[in-house]
């Protein structure tokens, strides 16, 4: 099995014209480990296999048919995450790691989140949260503020696992923890970031009107100034635009995306405070709000997508999300073949994100019902994503 798996990985890597070093860096594994795996001298763990598959833009099951889907490991991690934050506001005397080491671990978790490597994130989230909570209670003065920022980021990464695994109540608790920690950090910019993340609870509850009001309140309170401030404010406007679109408020959606575009033109595309923002991110959200508004707006979304595609510099989750929402718009326009192609692109970019995305699952299921004659490939995709 090990030799066959190694050959599949090597073949997929060469097909994508990637060096071993490039794949190792993209998968966050050591070069020596990757070499041993490709040589058949070592069987990768589930987490390592998923990291390699994610970096190759493949589902792990295509490399190892017997591979257990990542969703079960994500769900298995939820009790540990819940236990880690059960008494976050109490000092239980738990030994705390040095802040320098914790910072490295928090940055690693953020990298997993942005790369949509949720099962790897799930494996470290409970311990990371336990350490981050302990560090906050063990610190004082400027160190406490630094620890609070790290705890906020750790909770955000854990929230990605909870939200994708369907743990909505746990996700809401993690966001409460983020907001509490941001106050300890005494950082208004971090509080604005928390408002951005909190919006997902309004999306999940379909409470679009309330969510839009909450975001507009956060926009009014957000600090302004440099690139980080502009990017954070722009991200709030992007999310407000989509919430307004989901609420059927085209005028508000247009106003917010216009503000986001203006702010995006003033900063380079990048990750600010854990959130991607810049001209490309704004364009992706233009497609998202057009799809959400539906009707004639779909045409503008499809026109934009014909002229432009997101670059590989964006986080995997954001790029795959673009193709998932594009597929929804293409399906609404009757372009079923294009919709299926977009779903396949989304899977190639971020398999775990695509598999857990309800719109991707719903679109795949609808396509299978409409295009039964296309048999094998569409049926296989629908089975993979859980739409049948």
Quote the average pLDDT. 90
Termini gap: 29 Å
Shape: globular
Strand order of the largest sheet: 1-2
Fraction in beta strands: under 5%
Number of domains: 4
Main sheet characteristics: 2 strands, antiparallel
Topology:
Blueprint: H1 2-15, H2 20-27, H3 31-39, H4 46-56, H5 60-63, H6 70-84, H7 99-114, H8 118-138, H9 142-164, H10 168-185, H11 188-205, H12 208-221, H13 227-246, H14 250-264, E1 270-272, E2 275-277, H15 279-293, H16 297-307, H17 316-332, H18 336-349, H19 351-356, H20 358-370, H21 375-385
Helix pairs in contact: 1-3, 2-3, 2-4, 6-8, 6-9, 7-8, 7-9, 8-9, 9-10, 10-11, 11-12, 11-13, 12-13, 13-14, 13-15, 14-15, 15-16, 15-17, 16-17, 17-18, 17-20, 18-20, 20-21
Can you tell me about this structure?
β1 and β2 (275-277) form a beta hairpin. The protein folds into four domains: 1-68, 434 Repressor (Amino-terminal Domain); 71-186; 201-314, no CATH class; 316-388, Serine Threonine Protein Phosphatase 5, Tetratricopeptide repeat, CATH 1.25.40. The chain contains 21 helices and two strands. A two-stranded antiparallel sheet has the order 1-2. The mean pLDDT is 90. With 388 residues, it is an all-alpha fold. The protein has helices at 2-15, 20-27, 31-39, 46-56, 60-63, 70-84, 99-114, 118-138, 142-164, 168-185, 188-205, 208-221, 227-246, 250-264, 279-293, 297-307, 316-332, 336-349, 351-356, 358-370, 375-385; strands at residues 270-272, 275-277. It is 76% helix and 2% strand.
């Amino acid at each position: 099995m090990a030799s066959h798996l190694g050959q599949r990985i090597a073949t997929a890597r060469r097909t994508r014209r990637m060096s071993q070093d490039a794949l190792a860096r993209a998968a966050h594994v050591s070069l020596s480990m990757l070499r041993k795996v490709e040589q058949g001298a070592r069987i990768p763990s589930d987490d390592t296999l998923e990291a390699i598959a994610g970096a190759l833009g493949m589902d792990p099951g295509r490399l190892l048919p017997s591979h257990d889907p990542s969703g079960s490991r994500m769900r298995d991690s939820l009790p540990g995450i819940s236990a880690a934050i059960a008494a976050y506001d109490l000092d239980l005397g738990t030994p705390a790691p040095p802040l320098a080491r914790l910072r490295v671990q928090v940055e690693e978790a953020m990298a997993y989140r942005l790369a949509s490597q949720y099962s790897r994130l799930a494996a470290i989230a409970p311990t990371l949260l336990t350490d981050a909570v302990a560090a906050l209670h063990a610190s004082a003065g400027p160190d406490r503020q630094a620890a609070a920022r790290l705890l906020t980021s750790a909770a955000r990464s854990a929230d990605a696992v909870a939200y994708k695994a369907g743990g909505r109540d746990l996700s809401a608790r993690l966001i409460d923890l983020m907001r509490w920690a941001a106050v300890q950090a005494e950082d208004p910019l971090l509080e604005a970031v928390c408002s951005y993340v909190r919006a997902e609870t309004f999306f999940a509850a379909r409470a679009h009107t309330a969510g839009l009001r909450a975001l507009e309140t956060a926009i009014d309170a957000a600090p302004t100034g440099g690139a980080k401030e502009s990017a954070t404010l722009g991200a709030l406007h992007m999310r407000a635009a989509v919430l307004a679109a989901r609420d059927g408020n085209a005028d508000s959606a247009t106003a917010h995306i216009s503000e986001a575009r203006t702010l995006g033109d003033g900063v380079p595309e990048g990750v600010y405070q854990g959130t991607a923002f810049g001209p490309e991110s704004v364009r992706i959200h233009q497609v998202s709000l057009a799809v959400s508004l539906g009707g004639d707006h779909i045409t503008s979304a499809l026109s934009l997508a014909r002229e432009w595609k997101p670059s590989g510099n964006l986080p995997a989750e954001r790029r795959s999300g673009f193709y998932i929402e594009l597929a929804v718009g293409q399906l609404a326009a009757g372009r079923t073949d294009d919709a299926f192609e977009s779903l396949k692109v989304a899977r190639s970019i971020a398999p775990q994100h695509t598999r857990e995305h309800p719109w991707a699952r719903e679109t795949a299921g609808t396509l299978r019902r409409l295009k039964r004659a296309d048999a094998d490939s569409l049926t296989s995709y629908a089975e993979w994503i859980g739409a049948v």
